[in-house]
Amino acid sequence: MARVGVLLLNLGGPERIEDVGPFLYNLFADPEIIRLPTPLLQKPLAWLISTLRSNKSKEAYRAIGGGSPLRRITEQQARELQSELRHRGVQATTYVAMRYWHPFTESAVGDIKADAVDEVVVLPLYPHFSISTSGSSFRELQRLRQADPAFSKLPIRCIRSWYDHPGYVLAMAELIAAGVRSCEDPASAHVFFSAHGVPKSYVEDAGDPYQQEIEACSRLVMAKLEQLLGHGNPYTLAYQSRVGPVEWLKPYTDEALVRLGEEGVQELVVVPISFVSEHIETLEEIDIEYREIATEAGIRNFVRVPALDTYPTFIKGLADLVQQAQAGPEVNLDQAAALATQVKLYPQDKWAWGWNNSSEVWNGRLAMLGFSAFLLELLSGRGPLHALGLL
To answer: pTM (2 decimals)?
Structure first.
């Protein structure tokens, strides 16, 4: 029987307060996050930014207990998935590859090679594809594969996105149903999907399918929810974590909450649709910031649906995805990261201080119009970490 390595991709986050500074340095030392006119400036600027932003970031992490739970939850998901696959007779070993913090992608690749697996299934823990999440992780893995002859010989099957997978849709609907049933008037409870936002240009100029997949996923989940409850519920889809002067996908979560309050909505069931693990964006941004906005807007009952974490229906759905990938055609990393339209992404011919298609795609998470604007944004307290879903 073939030995399969299942590589789970995620972003990563600082686990302790003392990790925040080094984590920020790693983040901003990546030229795909900040593109500079010369590589010589990359590390000094990363040091400057991480030093300036460290205290503000530490405040947010203290508010959720002193660090990100993302690694712990992701590793729990990996163990549960491995157990489920082996129970099904699949000789699988799971590995975790974080983009910006431990365990890094290089470490996971080293473990895969040491275990001498026969093939690899790459499973991003992002249900909806975006160039800034799954796409970035696929590209990082591709760089490592091209530089490593032994790793490049391993058959690899990538799962690009899985927003419409029945197991995922059912797991989401089951958790939402529990939240709706807890309301005083379940039939009138308003379901509120909050997805991580991306700049509008990602979709319009770069061909990012993220918005289309989020919208389709919301409809599928609501249809399954109606089956479980026996009645339909009103719902809203909004996007959180916008930053900078450019337009992001709308409606914005904070503005949508105010509007619903003005419309007289009393019970709100809030669903972090694009997140499968509890982390800074659910625990701090939704649970603290958005809850306060909703309360001030007159929403009396704010019910937050938990992230999927190791919910059994979800883990079984992930196992289904792995088995389907094994049975299907080999999907390489280039195919997994491909966009619908051809946009010049990398490298740029020259440094551009302004905002253009290339910088929106690769530097859009910083949303800067210029270097001075970037620094002002950095120090404002609503800086680039929000755009990345890290603060």
So the answer is: 0.86
